[in-house]
Structure formats: structure tokens, C-alpha cells
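Re: [help] complex structure
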Amino acid sequence: MPRKLDAGAPGFEKDFDTFLNSKREMEEDVDQAVAAILKDVRERGDEAVVEYTNRFDRVSFTTDDILLPKARIAEEAAKCDPATVAALQVAAKRIASYHERMLPESFEYTDEIGVRLGSRWSAVGAAGLYVPGGTAAYPSSVLMNALPAKVAGVKRLVMVVPTPDGVINPLVMAAAQLVGVDEVYRIGGAQAVGALAYGTQSITQVDKIVGPGNAFVAAAKRRVFGTVGIDMIAGPSEILVVADAENDPDWIAVDLLSQAEHDTSAQSILITDDAGFADAVEAAVIRRLETLPRKDIAAASWAQHGAVILVPSLDHAVPLVDRVAPEHLELAVADPDTLAGKISNAGAIFLGRYTPEAIGDYIAGPNHVLPTSRSARFSSGLGVLDFMKRTSLVACDAASLAEIGGSAVALAEAEGLQAHARSIDIRLNRAS
Amino acid sequence: MPRKLDAGAPGFEKDFDTFLNSKREMEEDVDQAVAAILKDVRERGDEAVVEYTNRFDRVSFTTDDILLPKARIAEEAAKCDPATVAALQVAAKRIASYHERMLPESFEYTDEIGVRLGSRWSAVGAAGLYVPGGTAAYPSSVLMNALPAKVAGVKRLVMVVPTPDGVINPLVMAAAQLVGVDEVYRIGGAQAVGALAYGTQSITQVDKIVGPGNAFVAAAKRRVFGTVGIDMIAGPSEILVVADAENDPDWIAVDLLSQAEHDTSAQSILITDDAGFADAVEAAVIRRLETLPRKDIAAASWAQHGAVILVPSLDHAVPLVDRVAPEHLELAVADPDTLAGKISNAGAIFLGRYTPEAIGDYIAGPNHVLPTSRSARFSSGLGVLDFMKRTSLVACDAASLAEIGGSAVALAEAEGLQAHARSIDIRLNRAS
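Output below.
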């Protein structure tokens, strides 16, 4: 049974707080194991990477087997259902098109006293994309992680993907080929993250590592952060649906289940202003669950983490949504734009009755890598900026330095940094 | 003696690599102590914060003493030298003006099949600014950390600053007043970071924590990351100066020392195409050192981490600069713009002979919080974007959903996520 909360009931504030702070993630203690693997990869390079790969993926590779040749990638990709590949192509085109609008603008100007100032964006040199193996190998994730890098202008895009028991996922290869990955290595886990971060004899170090992974991968990314950049460490997926009574309860039930089926730790929340509608959705969830292949996962998620929150009016949903700061927010209401305008914290907002969240997972255009666990309060979905960095530019001439130099000297001296002050003085021919 | 490298000499590649990978940071093992403090603050709130503050700062506060009243801030600020306050005002105006140009643009459009798509930037709700106490309390850092938040539109800006032995730094108060900090708490260390991240009875939780601090503060920020956003964890400061023989060796020497005086772990590097000039700068550094109050610090930094690299021509400096990815890059050459155009990795570039790095520390306009330790390969200086987050928007109607829904269903089914597929199907009146 999902949690039931009524914003009009006494004690709601306390219950909502408890709900907000309930943990969904299982913390696996893998950090020590990961530290040892990373150290080993750093010291022994390829040799260590191959040993761990052979052990964890039950294969018997040599160093030469790690890089997947382009021909092999093409061969695997050719095994895919053409209709699915066509769908991938539609998705790739739409995702690229949306992300192109996110390219930031560099600027340069000369201010009123003659100081030239600028801000220049440039792409990171090389990006590494982690793709999980086995059942969690999602071709849509390849598109969502690789395309922003491509749009940003990253010159070298490297993919690592484990192939447990030697099995290659053809759709992942099709996606890699489609987006133009430059190198694909059939390795995974902490050893793959280490290889990308430190470099080995055969794999050149990258500057940034992105992509989802299990607890080992997440711990490895945390540890190599600083040596390379990383994307966020994603928690379990979430959806919050705000729906009025005019919706078909069945539609909303399926939307809630589309998150719940990801993972038993996933979370689906319904906020509605109609108690009867809430009951109807709950009943529909029970019926729909029976039809799902991933019924057990979805049922566990709904029972353990699901919630139905009744509010006196839809406007009362706004502060609750901001506090949850959901990864995905569906506004299945008559005037979704007005409601969306009042909300600050959400990774992505799906507007209206004909925009199920799943359309954003695959094909709408915006990224599906989004902030989880309330982090939409301070962070954003993956985008082009994650593969770029900014350099500031300053140019003074003798006259403009003379104009502002005195203030800088005053501050440097107030902070007790004499060489700072002298580096300006000396150019102004003052006491040096 | 600084390290001497000659890019034309055999073995340079190996020596440069060793130089790049030499560690400058002392890693203090404070993580366990910090974990205990954070846990305590989380559980006991104000009571714990006050206890740690009294112990570490040698004061005897009660909970009521922590918040500095506006009147007290004004009183302290009034003690400052008016000339220094005027310099702070000049700096604040220039920093705000530069940062206003960094405000990102939201967008919304309807694509060719009728899907409405958007990207909306908004400010984080509340930001916490850590300001170190004692000698490291730099008013310039208050401006550089607070103004991007203000420009971003952050509604609530909270400052924490320890006051060891009860001593308040008037210039820090003047800076806080100038930028319009909303709340100032006289607490520091891991306990202050914990209070901002988790909230206490008297301090409301923030969404993002920025600002420099010692090893305890850095460890605490790493640990609370996820609960709140944090800025980068800054390493020791660096400057790389590319200079030709037309410079006054004395000017370049002082520039190198202006980083070296920060910290014994700071690093100053000169790259030049003239061996005689290199020698002249080295000699000037020795002479200039004698004149500095912070001579011992600067001398240790230069001897342990300094480097002079000789290149056959200035163009040979480009790949070396990109590999160092310096926090500060000074191009004291005849045509700095052309050289800057070839460089990808640098936090900030100072162009020409009249732009000493120190002008950027205080007054030029760009931020002085910049990526260190080679992280300019993948990250940027502090800016307005650090206090904003992006929400993506998608709106389909029945017709546009019908247009792209089929591809999404194909991908959802290929990934084995049936509820995802059904959430689209059901709206298309297909098999549901």
C-alpha cells in the first residue's frame, strides 16, 4: 500500500517531512573494494584491467581483445530489428536538435574604461561514457549521454561497456555507431572507470566520465572525481504526477507504474485535489500491475515508496512539489503552463494530459539523465554544458590598469598580500 | 631552486610528465572527525553547533549569540578604512557587471510536428557562503562568492564565518553588508557546513554551499554533497606565465611571486622561449623575495613547486599549457590574443604585458574562484550558473504524441519496459 497523506489533515507537515526524508537507496559498502581496484589499475594499467574483466565478466580476454573494432560494432549493429534502429534514429535526431539550442554563447567586450573582458566556452577534449552491461544496457542511455558531448564539440568520445560472458548487446552497438563513438572498449565496473580516469597503455585518459552504473561504478566515479570530471551520481528514479479529476485514472495509473517498474527503489507520487479520483487511480494501479511483466518490481516500489497526497486545491501542490523537487513532474491538469510557472524545483516537467513521462525517456528531445533525490533544488539534467568549460579573459593596457589598479592595490594590501599589490604597482611606475 | 625543464632536450617528455603528476596537496586525514561532527549536528542541531564553536573558536556562545544582528554588522563595517571600503565598492560593481552577462537564456519553441519544448533556468532557493576566519578571511572572496548568487537571483544568501577568540573581521562584515547577505552566523568548520546542509532549530537548510575553507571544511563539503550542492573543492593556487624576452624580468618575477606568496603549496611556472630571459627572471625572483613580508612562504613555494620551462618557440608552449590546464594563465607576449586562441584549458587568461594576474583577483570583473590542479580540463570558474538550475519542458497534444509515440513505444519495448510503452499506447488508443 502506498503512503496516504492529506494536506488538509492535522499532522500533515510532520508526516510530509518524514516522507521527504525517508531513504530509498540501499547503500552497498563497496568503497574499499573499489579503492583497491582503482589503485591496481593505476599501477598496472592494461594488465589489471584485463584481469578484473576476465574475473568479473567470466571471459578470457587478452589486452588485444578489449577494443571493439569498428567492423565488429557494425556487424553487431546489423543484427538489430530495423524498426528499432529507425526509432533510435528518430530519437537521435530529436535529441541532437534540442541540445543544439543549449549551446552557450561566449562573449567579449570592452568596458567604459578600456578593459577588455571575455568569457569563452570550449568543449572538453575527451569524454568517457559508461554503459552498463546485461539487462541494464539501455540504448536510449547511449544516445542521452553521447549526444550532448557530440553537440558540445567533444573531439574524442570513448565508450566502455562490459560484456558479461562475452555477450554483446547489438542495440547498444547500433546506438554507439549512430552517435559516432570513437572508441568502444568491452570493459566495465570500477576497472573501466579507472582506465578512463588514469589512462592505461592502450586507453588514453579522458577528461570527463558520464553515464549510469551499479554501486561499484558509482563509488569509482566518486573516487576519481577531481582527476577527471564526472556527471551526477544518480539515485533511484522518481515521478510526481499532479492530476485533477478530469483525467482517466487508468492513464495516470500507468504513468505512475512506468517509474515503479524501473526498480524497487523507484518512487511514484500522485498529488490530486479529488479524493475519489485518488481512489480510482489506486484501484487502477492494482489492476494494471497484473498485466506487467515487471509486476514484482513495480508492486514493491509502489507499496514501499509510492504515495498519494490529497490537497485542498491544485495550488496547494506547488510548495509540496518544490520540496520534493522531483526528477520527473507530470502536470495532468487543465492549465499546465500556469501551474508550471509557479514551480521552481523539477528536473523535467511534462505538460498536459497527452505528455506521459515516457515520451521524455526516449524521444521528446530533452535529456533523460535528470537530478534525483531532491537534487533538482540545486542541479540540472545532463546537457551540453556538462561537456564544456569556460575560460575568462582579461586584458588591460597601461591606461586602464592605471584606472583600476589603485583599488586592487588597496584590497591586496588590506589582505596582506604584498606581491599581489607590487605586481600592479610596478606596472604603474609607483613605489616598487 | 625551481625545477628547470627544456622542451628541446632529450627526456623532456618524461620529465614534464613527472612534473605534471607531482602532488602539491597535503592530505590531512580529517574525514573521520568530520563525519562525527556532521552526524552530531544532524542529530542535535544548534546545541551541537554551539558546543563545537565554543570548543574550536575558544568562545562561550549560547544559541542566541550565533546570528550576528544587522546593527552589529554595520557597527563592525564602520570600523573599516573608508578607502578600502571604496575599493570594495569599485570591485563589487565591476564583478556584478561582468557576471550579469553570464545570465543564461531560457527558451521555448514548438517543433515541426507540434511538440512544445523548452528549457527554463531558475535560481536556487538559498545559498550558503563559507568564509574562513582568522588571516584567511578575505573580503574579496566574499564578493566573488556572493555576487554570482545575487546576480543569479538567489533569494536567501546565508554567510557563516568563524570568529576565533570572538574576533570579528570588519572588512568581511563590510563586504557582507555591501553584497546584501541576508543572514550572518559566526560559526565555522565542519559544524557550520553541517548546519547549512541539514538545517538546525535556528538555521534553515540551504540548497547550495560555496566558499573556501580548510581541510575540515573541504571534507565536510564532500560529505554533504548530494544533500546540498557544493562548488568545487579548490586545491592550492597556480599561475603559469608565458613570457617572451621583451618583458621586464622584474615584472614577471613579481607575478610569479604573487601566487607563491599564497601558500607553500602554491605553484608558479614560467614558460619562455629565451634562456637569457629565464635566467634574468630567476635572478629577479631571488631579489624580490627579500622585499616580501611573506618571503618564507613564497620562497618555499618557488623552491618546491616552481618551474621554468624553456621552449624553442612560443607556439611550443600551447600543448604544454593545455596539459597543465592552469588556474591562471598570463600571456605576456606581443600578440596575446592569437596565442590565447590556440589554448583550450585554462581557468582565466590574462592578456598582454599590462594585465598582472592580481588585477583579476580583485577588480577586473571575472571570478577569482577558478579550477585548480588540472581541473580546467573539465571545469570552470565560479559563476552565475553555479547558483541556477535548469528544468526541461515538454508538451505534446494528441496529434504530436501520435507522430512520435510509435518510436518511443518501439524503444521502450526493446528495453523491456512495458509500462513505459503502455503509458504512450493508452493515449493513442492502441492495445492497452
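Chain A has a mean pLDDT of 95.
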